[in-house]
Design a protein that fits this description.
Length: 199
């Protein structure tokens, strides 16, 4: 029987699409739910078009405890083996993470532990970094922390803006996240490094 993957999003869901597209054929997992905390997230439409069940748990409808209780209820119905955060812009509590320990993963557009949080590309450019990186890691209670499962490096070009750099990194995110998810489903947690190649 296939493993089940719930994908949590807040926005356009391009990483969600790359994960969902990868879970075909002999892949050991299938997407069981795409859940957004934002009712208008573009990724919801894209998931529905791919035939994946969708749900919205609006974080503005209640306090954090209420939000996480509703999130837990939606996940209990979907029975995921893995929870993949893909541009999910809410911080999960330690209790929530403990309830799914070792089974939540996230993608972050930096060389963790550098540049946790927001505006990673602007901060990397301001620091004069020669490379930008994206990281897939296990989620632990600390923000953008937890064991690293995979990384991909991207060159910084002389005229880069945060936007151009983000677009170049996103191409590698779309390759790295499916690779790491598949490895996880096959029981491999050793960190993997993906070499850069242009889109
Ligand atoms: C990605 O850059 C991801 O690394 C970050 O948020 C962005 C989400 O993009 N956490 P998308 O919604 O997957 O297109």
């Amino acid at each position: 029987m296939s493993q089940r993957v719930a994908i949590l999003i807040s926005g356009s869901g391009s990483n969600m699409v790359s994960l969902a597209r990868s879970m075909v054929g002999d892949h050991p997992a299938r997407p069981c739910l795409v859940l957004s905390n934002r009712p208008g997230a573009g990724g919801l439409t894209r998931a529905a078009e791919m035939g994946i069940p969708t749900a919205v748990v609006d974080n503005r409808a209640s306090d954090r405890a209420g939000f996480e209780a509703a999130l837990q209820a939606a996940l209990a119905d979907a029975r995921p083996d893995w929870i993949a955060l893909a541009g999910f812009m809410r911080i999960l509590s330690a209790d929530f993470v403990a309830a799914h320990a070792g089974r939540i993963v996230n993608i972050h557009p930096s060389l963790l532990p550098k540049y946790r949080g927001l505006d990673t590309h602007a901060r990397a450019l301001a620091a004069g970094e020669a490379e930008a990186v994206c990281t897939v890691h296990e989620v632990t209670p600390a923000l953008d922390d937890g064991p690293i499962l995979g990384q991909a490096r991207v060159p910084v070009l002389p005229d880069d803006t945060p936007e151009t750099l983000a677009a170049r990194v996103l191409v590698m995110e779309h390759r790295l996240y499916p690779l790491v998810l598949r490895r996880l489903c096959e029981g491999q947690r050793a960190p993997v490094t993906l070499p850069y190649s242009p889109a």
